[in-house]
User: Which sequence fits this backbone?
């Protein structure tokens, strides 16, 4: 059954007078992968900071699975999984300890946590490495642990902030494939900030953000049609570098 | 169920902090070396220069090493509190603070959890220090060591809350050196950690008043009296009040609506 995982209305934000987001609005349905494309400084990180409530929403409204992020923060955050751009794992602790810490923050019992950890790590072929320190893992494996962690509490919305930056091609491809599978197997909504066009699948949705405004939003085909472009790269360039950009 | 959630989260935060502390052996050693250098070298050198007259909680003449020990306990907790706040600034810059901040729990609880975890680490450090001091003939009664525990918890929370408050104002890790110069050293030297109040009064009334109303002094006195099985009511209420004020200000500092977070551009 499909449901609205994220709904954003008239969201604006500025830093000391400089507008970072201007009247942004869109919604995400479960079971779909949406890529948030935009050049550096487009407002992607600000948008993520507002959705995760690291910044306060001063103008506009954000709802996660029907819960207002400002008024029902805890209920909303309980349904949110996040993979931040920078690694947020504890380097001196093991994979297991990092995941148990997250499970504890979500109030899971030790037994439930162990079950979920096993499930998520096995799906990512990381269960054998559960006792290794994070410091001993390579970048791709660390990312897998972070994805497993973000899924432990079965979120309705998964936010990914450029999770493949700095990874080699096979690691990148494996993660892109896995995330796309999740939308089908887990029926979750994915919002994926990226500037790598090759991470887009034909069935995905796109949101193109530029200078704090949404320049285009919808399924890949619809955006190609509306921009008259043959490729996503071409459409992206027209939307962000054209006369109206 | 909600209480269970809070309970599990609290233990998760404390467990993580204790594990990190155990794994970082250098941190453990340096936390012990600092007060031991003061005790074994500085205090031994000053023994002849400073005579400590009989004043509560002591009922006899004491050696300077005995006097300075509660001050060094305070020093351990002061440095630990500041180190925890340094770790929070680091975590914020490196991003791992975000994982804590997006947990589905109130922010005040998450900050208090961090604070309790940091205090637990400092209590551990203090008792290891006292165990070493015991072999140096600085000994209290077993009851004294027991009474010290609640005093350490309160003083650790107060100094940790001060660190937390500072960390909400510090933009970058580099600015932390300023905290050392403008917070740790004045707090430590303008206190009763190294010299009794009456001795300070002989030198300067201003310094005496500053030391008297310094919350670090009150925390040290609370621990000093507790170590000898006595309850210093004034020090207790002063330390408790300072904790409440620092904690409230820190929570405000980390509040996304009112605090510094949006101006800093990160969490």
Assistant:
């Amino acid at each position: 059954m499909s449901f609205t995982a994220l709904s954003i209305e008239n969201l604006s934000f500025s830093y000391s007078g400089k507008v970072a987001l201007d009247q942004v609005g869109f919604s995400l349905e479960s079971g779909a992968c949406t890529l948030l494309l935009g050049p550096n400084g487009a407002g992607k990180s600000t948008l993520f900071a507002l959705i995760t409530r690291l910044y306060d929403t001063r103008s506009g409204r954000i709802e996660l699975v029907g819960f207002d992020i400002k008024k029902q923060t805890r209920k909303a955050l309980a349904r949110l999984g996040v993979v931040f751009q920078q690694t947020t794992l504890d380097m001196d602790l093991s994979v297991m300890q990092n995941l148990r810490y997250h499970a504890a923050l979500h109030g899971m019992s030790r037994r439930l946590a162990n079950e979920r950890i096993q499930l998520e790590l096995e799906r990512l072929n990381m269960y054998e490495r559960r006792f290794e320190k994070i410091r001993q893992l390579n970048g791709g494996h660390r990312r897998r642990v972070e994805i497993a962690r973000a899924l432990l509490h079965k979120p309705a919305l998964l936010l990914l902030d450029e999770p493949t930056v700095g990874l080699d091609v096979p690691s990148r491809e494996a993660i892109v494939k896995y995330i796309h599978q999740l939308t089908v197997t887990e029926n979750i909504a994915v919002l994926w900030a990226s500037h790598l066009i090759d991470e887009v699948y034909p069935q995905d949705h796109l949101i193109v953000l530029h200078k704090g405004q949404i320049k285009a939003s919808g399924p890949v085909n619809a955006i190609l049609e509306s921009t008259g472009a043959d490729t996503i790269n071409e459409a992206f360039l027209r939307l962000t570098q054209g006369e109206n950009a | 169920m909600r209480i269970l959630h809070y309970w599990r989260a609290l233990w998760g935060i404390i467990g993580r902090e204790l594990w990190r502390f155990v794994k970082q052996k250098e941190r453990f050693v340096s936390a012990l070396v600092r007060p031991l250098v003061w005790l074994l070298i500085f205090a031994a050198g000053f023994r002849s220069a400073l005579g400590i007259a009989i004043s509560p909680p002591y009922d006899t003449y004491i050696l300077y090493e005995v006097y300075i020990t509660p001050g060094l306990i305070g020093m351990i907790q002061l440095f630990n509190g500041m180190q925890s706040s340094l770790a929070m600034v680091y975590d914020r810059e490196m991003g791992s603070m975000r994982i804590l901040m997006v947990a589905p729990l109130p922010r005040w609880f998450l900050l208090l959890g961090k604070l309790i975890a940091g205090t637990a680490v400092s209590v551990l450090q203090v008792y290891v220090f006292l165990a070493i001091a015991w072999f140096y003939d600085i000994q209290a009664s077993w009851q004294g060591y027991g009474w010290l525990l609640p005093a350490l918890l309160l003083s650790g929370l107060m100094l940790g809350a001060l660190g937390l408050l500072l960390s909400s104002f510090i933009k970058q890790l580099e600015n932390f050196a300023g905290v050392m110069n403008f917070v740790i050293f004045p707090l430590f030297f303008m206190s009763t950690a190294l010299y009794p109040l009456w001795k300070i009064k002989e030198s300067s009334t201003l310094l005496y008043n500053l030391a008297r109303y310094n919350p670090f002094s009150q925390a040290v006195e609370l621990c000093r009296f507790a170590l000898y099985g006595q309850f210093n009511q004034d020090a207790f209420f002063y330390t408790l009040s300072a904790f409440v004020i620092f904690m409230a200000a820190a929570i405000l500092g980390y509040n996304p609506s009112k605090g510094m977070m949006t101006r800093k551009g990160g969490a």
